[in-house]
Amino acid sequence: MSPPVGEVLGGMTQGGTIHRFVPTGGDPDPLQSLREEIEGRLNSSWRDVRLRLLPSESEHGSLMGIGLKCVRLYNELNYRRGRHSSKGELTRDKMYEIDRKYYYKHNDVPGVNAQAIIQKNDKAWKSFFELLKLEKRGRLPPYTKKVSPPGYWKDRFTGRKEIHIFIRNDRYHLEPIDENRGYLVLEDFGLKIRYAGRISGKVGREDLK
Q1: Regarding beta strands 49-54 and 6-10, do their DSSP bridges make them parallel or antiparallel, or are they unpaired?
Q2: Which tens digit of pLDDT belongs to each residue from 20-51?
C-alpha cells in the first residue's frame, strides 16, 4: 500500500526568521508586531507555496520518525511553559531557561530544526500574552471570543499527534524537473523526496505536515 501523501508549506517567514514582539517602553500597541509582519508580507515577493510530497514507503517512515521527535519537543515546551504560566512565573528569563533546557535535551533533533520549533512555540506564547493585554483593555479582535494558552500539536477530537517538521530555509533546496514536479532535498536528514506542484515566488521556512 502506498504511503500517505504529504504536503509542504513554504514561505511562511522571510529568511527563515520569526518576528518577535519587543516592548520599547511606555505602553506599546500589542498588535504592532503583527501589523508589521502582515505589511512586510504584502510588500514583499514572498509567497506561500504548497507542494504535494510523494515519498516512497521508506521515506515516509523517515519523515514520520523525524516528525514525532519535533512534536515531542514542541509539546514538552508547551507543557513546561503552561505550568509556569499558571503560577504566574513565566517571565522572559524563565522562557529563555526553558528554551535552553529543551534545546539540549532533544539533541536527537538537528540544532537548526530544534531552533525553528522553539521559535514557533515562542511566537505562540508571545501572541497569547499580547491577546491577554488586549482582553484586559476590552480591545479583543471581534473574531477572538476566548483567550487560551497555546495548544498541543494533537487533534482535539482524536488525541492523535499532529505531525509537523520545520526546516529552516537554508537547510533544504528544491531540484525541479519541470514546472510541475521535482525533488525536495532535506540536507540534514539525507532525504530527496519527489514533489508535485508549481512554485511561484521565493520560498522561506518549510513546514511539513
Answers
A1: antiparallel
A2: 333 334 444 445 555 555 555 555 544 556 78
Q: Which amino acid is at 54?
A: L
Three-state DSSP string of 85-143: HHCCCCCHHHHHHHHHHHHHHCCCCCHHHHHHHHHHHHHHHHHHHHHHHHHHCCCCCCC
Domain boundaries, the chain: 57-172+200-209
Give the best-scoring range by mean pLDDT among 17-21, 32-36, 53-57.
53-57
- Cβ pair 65, 207 in contact under 8 A: no
Q: Are 164 and 153 in contact (CB under 8 A)?
A: yes
pLDDT digits (tens, 9 = 90+) for 97-116: 999 999 999 888 887 788 88
pTM above 0.70, yes or no: yes
- H or E segment at 184? strand 181-186
The position carrying cell 527563515 is 16
Q: Provide DSSP, 28-58.
A: --TTHHHHHHHHHHHTSSB--EEEEEE--HH
93 alpha-carbon distance from chain centroid: 22
CA count, 13 A, side-chain hemisphere, 177: 12
